[in-house]
């Protein structure tokens, strides 16, 4: 029989297994170094506006400071297999052994790759040079790709990947249903839940405009309703959202291994929020023990 876990236990476990997504701006390297735990996992997005050079430069700087770095290899920004080979060699020289492979914005295609699958296939042909390869999952419908295509793409890419990173959704039922559908299709890769933390509305709006077609902000700007959910006071609470999905994502057979935190370069604020939530969860559990396990915090009862 599967052990029942409290929602607070599920949320605490997720908040303790996180990675942080950043946009490759020069100032972010120092902020990451000052704000995140030593050796934290940081993913660096690929921006058509700045080019892959910015992604690799920031990734190399973070790796040199001891962080576990995962650059985005946006397929449509890579011209041909020879360039991919050069990129692989460069990353290995920096000690970077993990990558995330999205297709990238369609308008940014510069060469032969029009899908993430094609690039993944070429990585496989070159001997699987990376120890970890992430691919995207879409709990919500993609703004420009039919659902049937995203489902087929995940099935095709599963052989080349080691984990799935979900894009953002703000409906707990949608996320839970998606996790179940992924497993029912026979896809057993670990899942990281994509989650925006408690970010500043003003900074978020400014970052979205600055990034333009960057991976995270592009998704937000193409889905105005999602942007509004983050930007409107009281409309989105990450902890309440996780609590409402805990019955599904907390199951061992769900295979959810942690959180992918979209920081929108609010690194210090995101990490402060994460630590505060862990501290509050600890106090909540202490109170529950003192009261004989009676539940007093809505959304954090037993599942």
Explain this structure to me?
Mean pLDDT is 85; it is low at 211-217 and 293-303. The chain is an alpha/beta fold and 303 residues long. The protein starts with 6 loop residues before the first helix and ends in a 13-residue tail after the last helix. The chain has helices at residues 7-15, 28-35, 52-64, 81-93, 116-125, 147-157, 172-184, 201-211, 215-222, 224-231, 238-249, 267-290, and strands spanning 18-22, 41-44, 68-71, 98-100, 132-137, 163-166, 191-196, 256-262. The longest helix is centred in the last third of the chain and has 24 residues, at 267-290. The protein has one domain: TIM Barrel, CATH 3.20.20. Helix 7 (172-184) links the parallel strand 6 and strand 7. The chain is built from 12 helices and 8 strands. Helix 1 (7-15) packs across helix 11 and helix 1 runs antiparallel to helix 12. The chain is globular, with a radius of gyration of 19 Å. It has an 8-stranded parallel beta sheet, covered by helices on one side.
Shape: globular
Number of domains: 1
What percentage of the residues does DSSP assign to strands (E)? Answer: 5-15%
Derived structural class? alpha/beta
Helix content: 40-55%
**Average pLDDT over all residues:** 85
CATH architecture: Alpha-Beta Barrel
Low-confidence stretches: 211-217, 293-303
- The total strand number stands at 8
Radius of gyration: 19 Å
Q: What is the class in the CATH system?
A: Alpha Beta
Side by side, the strands of the main sheet go 3-2-1-8-7-6-5-4
**Biggest pleated-sheet summary:** 8 strands, parallel
Q: How far apart, in Å, are the first and last alpha carbons?
A: 14 Å
Our count of helices gives 12
User: What is the string of helix and strand elements?
Assistant: HEHEHEHEHEHEHEHHHHEH
Examine the coordinates and then state which fold CATH places here, giving the name of the CATH topology: TIM Barrel
């Amino acid at each position: 029989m599967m052990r029942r876990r409290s929602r607070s236990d599920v949320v605490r476990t997720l908040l303790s297994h996180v990675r942080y997504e950043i946009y490759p701006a020069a100032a972010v390297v120092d902020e990451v170094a000052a704000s995140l735990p030593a050796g934290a996992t940081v993913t660096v997005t690929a921006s058509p506006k700045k080019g892959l050079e910015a992604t690799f430069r920031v990734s190399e700087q973070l790796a040199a400071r001891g962080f576990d770095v995962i650059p985005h290899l946006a397929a449509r920004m890579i011209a041909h297999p020879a360039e991919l080979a050069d990129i692989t060699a460069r990353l290995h020289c920096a000690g970077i052994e993990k990558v995330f492979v999205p297709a990238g914005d369609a308008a940014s295609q510069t060469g032969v790759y029009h899908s993430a699958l094609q690039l993944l296939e070429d990585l496989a042909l070159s001997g699987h040079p990376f120890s970890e390869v992430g691919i995207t999952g879409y709990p919500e419908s993609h703004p420009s790709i039919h659902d049937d295509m995203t489902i087929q793409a995940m099935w095709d890419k599963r052989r080349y990947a080691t984990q799935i990173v979900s894009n953002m959704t703000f409906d707990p039922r949608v996320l839970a249903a998606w996790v179940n559908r992924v497993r029912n299709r026979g896809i057993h890769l670990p899942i990281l839940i994509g989650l925006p933390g408690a970010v500043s509305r003003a900074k978020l709006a400014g970052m979205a405009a600055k990034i333009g077609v960057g991976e995270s902000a592009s998704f937000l700007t193409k889905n105005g309703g999602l942007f509004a959910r983050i930007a409107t006071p009281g409309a989105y609470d990450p902890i309440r959202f996780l609590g409402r999905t805990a019955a599904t994502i907390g199951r061992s057979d769900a295979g959810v291994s942690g959180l992918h935190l979209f920081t929108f370069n609010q690194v210090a604020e995101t990490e402060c929020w994460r630590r505060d939530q862990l501290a509050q969860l600890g106090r909540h559990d202490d109170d529950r023990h003192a009261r004989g396990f009676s539940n007093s915090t809505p959304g954090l009862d037993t599942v």
